């Protein structure tokens, strides 16, 4: 049975929809209301508060921590400065993607990894010969994400460190409301301005209550996973288990993806000291990946026409779709891939999708056909390959002026 997180005493009573799901063995809220529109609006216009405690968290200590971390991940993290955060993929010896996550350098000899799946066995299996100590911090740390345009304004009076000085993808150990030790990072999974706060479970309720008290007058809302799914697609973020599968769960080679095929090629640093999967990935880069993750924009006028032909208004669910949907070539004859995630963006007023296609069909501006099914009739609509992220506000990376925060 899924177990509660340290924040469940606050999140569960607020979940009037009773819509829960299992996330990494924990009970997580899907949507607090019967649908997630209010939560989505908060993420994009004010701020949302999300319990991200189910993430797996591992600390690596020791003289060889930097070399060991770089060996495990596709990105060269050994040269990271203390206080830096990097995003990366992790591959097996065949160059196939296992997971993705963040690497934070908390000290000269101290790194922290966050992943979507448990990897303690993997760390230990590759630690022979390295002078490191590995700690599973998953149950010893809980975490909250405060995401949205007003996130900094809400947290500024609560956090001892001056958040105006914190740059994108940085992390710092500080205190909260005076004396609660926390680690705060300028990271998140929404593609917007945001922070994640990491703390011991005994401080969870006090931290939650303080954020809610400060943020509620500014429009802060508790947020579930349904709204998060919408904004991560807008941000062009791939999700392990949806947009690509971890190689350790795949039955056939066809199901496996390399980091480049999973849309994570930008996290790979090939020209450096050896890392797991390096040779296989290098060979793939030379011959070219077979697949590519692309952003797609579906033609809304064509969708409307399909429903009009059935005497119906367009109907789209107010949540993201994770169902695999076939993608065809421009003529609609040959299947060239599949949509992995799709959603109607309330902010952008566009029907967006992430899809895995043959690399030859991944050229920007290329037109493809995507299956769409009104009234149980299989039809096709035009989809154009477009750049991701679909939504990329300047405030995500820059320091937002106080005047703009008050607007």
Protein model, in words:
This protein is α+β, with helices and mostly antiparallel strands and 407 residues long. Among the domains are: 8-53 and 141-223, Gyrase A, domain 2, CATH 3.30.1360; 247-257 and 290-386, Aminomethyltransferase beta-barrel domains (Elongation Factor Tu (Ef-tu), domain 3), CATH 2.40.30.110. It is 20% helix and 30% strand. The strands form four sheets. Strands 10-11-12-9-3-13 form a six-stranded mixed beta sheet, sandwiched between helices. The chain has a six-stranded antiparallel barrel with strand order 14-17-16-15-18-19. Strands 5-6-7-4-8 form a five-stranded antiparallel beta sheet. The longest helix is centred in the middle third of the chain and has 12 residues, at 204-215.
For the structure shown, list the relevant keywords.
407 residues; six-stranded mixed beta sheet; Elongation Factor Tu (Ef-tu), domain 3; alpha+beta; six-stranded antiparallel β-barrel; Gyrase A, domain 2; single chain
State the CATH class of the domain at 8-53 and 141-223.
Answer: Alpha Beta
- Percent range for β-strand residues: 25-35%
Unreliable spans are none
State mean pLDDT (0 to 100 scale): 95
CATH homologous superfamily title of the domain at 8-53 and 141-223: Probable tRNA modification gtpase trme, domain 1
SS elements, strand count: 19
């Amino acid at each position: 049975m899924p177990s509660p997180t340290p924040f469940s005493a606050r999140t569960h009573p607020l979940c009037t929809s009773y819509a829960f799901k299992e996330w990494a063995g924990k009970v997580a809220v899907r949507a607090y209301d019967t649908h997630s529109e209010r939560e989505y609006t908060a993420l994009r216009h004010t701020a949302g508060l999300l319990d991200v405690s189910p993430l797996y968290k591992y600390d690596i200590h020791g003289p060889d921590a930097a070399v060991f971390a770089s060996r495990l991940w596709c990105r060269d993290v050994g040269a990271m400065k203390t206080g830096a955060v990097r995003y990366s993929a992790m591959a097996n010896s065949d160059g196939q993607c296992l997971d993705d996550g963040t690497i934070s350098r908390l000290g000269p000899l101290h790194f922290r990894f966050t992943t979507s799946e448990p990897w303690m066995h993997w760390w230990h299996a590759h630690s022979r010969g390295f002078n490191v100590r590995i700690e599973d911090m998953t149950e010893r740390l809980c975490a909250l994400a405060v995401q949205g345009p007003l996130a900094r304004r809400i947290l500024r009076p609560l956090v001892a460190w001056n958040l105006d000085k914190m740059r994108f993808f940085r992390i710092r150990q500080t205190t909260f409301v005076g004396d609660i030790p926390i680690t705060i990072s300028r990271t998140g999974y929404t593609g917007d301005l945001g922070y994640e706060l990491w703390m011991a479970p005994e401080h969870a309720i006090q931290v939650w209550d303080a954020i809610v008290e400060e943020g509620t007058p500014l429009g802060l809302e508790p947020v579930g996973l349904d709204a998060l799914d919408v904004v991560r697609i807008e941000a062009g973020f791939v999700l392990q288990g949806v947009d690509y599968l971890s190689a350790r769960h795949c039955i056939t080679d066809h199901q496996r993806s390399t980091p480049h095929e999973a849309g994570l090629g930008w996290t790979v640093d090939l020209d450096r000291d050896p890392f797991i999967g390096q040779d296989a990935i290098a060979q793939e880069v030379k011959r070219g990946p077979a697949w590519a993750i692309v952003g797609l924009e579906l033609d809304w006028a064509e969708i409307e026409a399909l429903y009009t032909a059935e005497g119906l208004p367009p109907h789209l669910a107010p949540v993201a779709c994770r169902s695999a949907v076939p993608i065809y070539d421009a003529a609609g004859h040959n299947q060239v891939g599949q949509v992995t995630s799709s959603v109607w963006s309330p902010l952008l007023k566009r029907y967006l999708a992430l899809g895995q296609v043959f690399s030859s069909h991944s050229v920007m501006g290329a037109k493809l056909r995507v299956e769409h099914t009104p009234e149980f009739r299989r039809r096709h609509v035009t989809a154009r390959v477009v750049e991701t992220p679909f939504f990329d506000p300047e405030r995500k990376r820059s320091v937002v002026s106080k005047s703009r925060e008050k607007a």
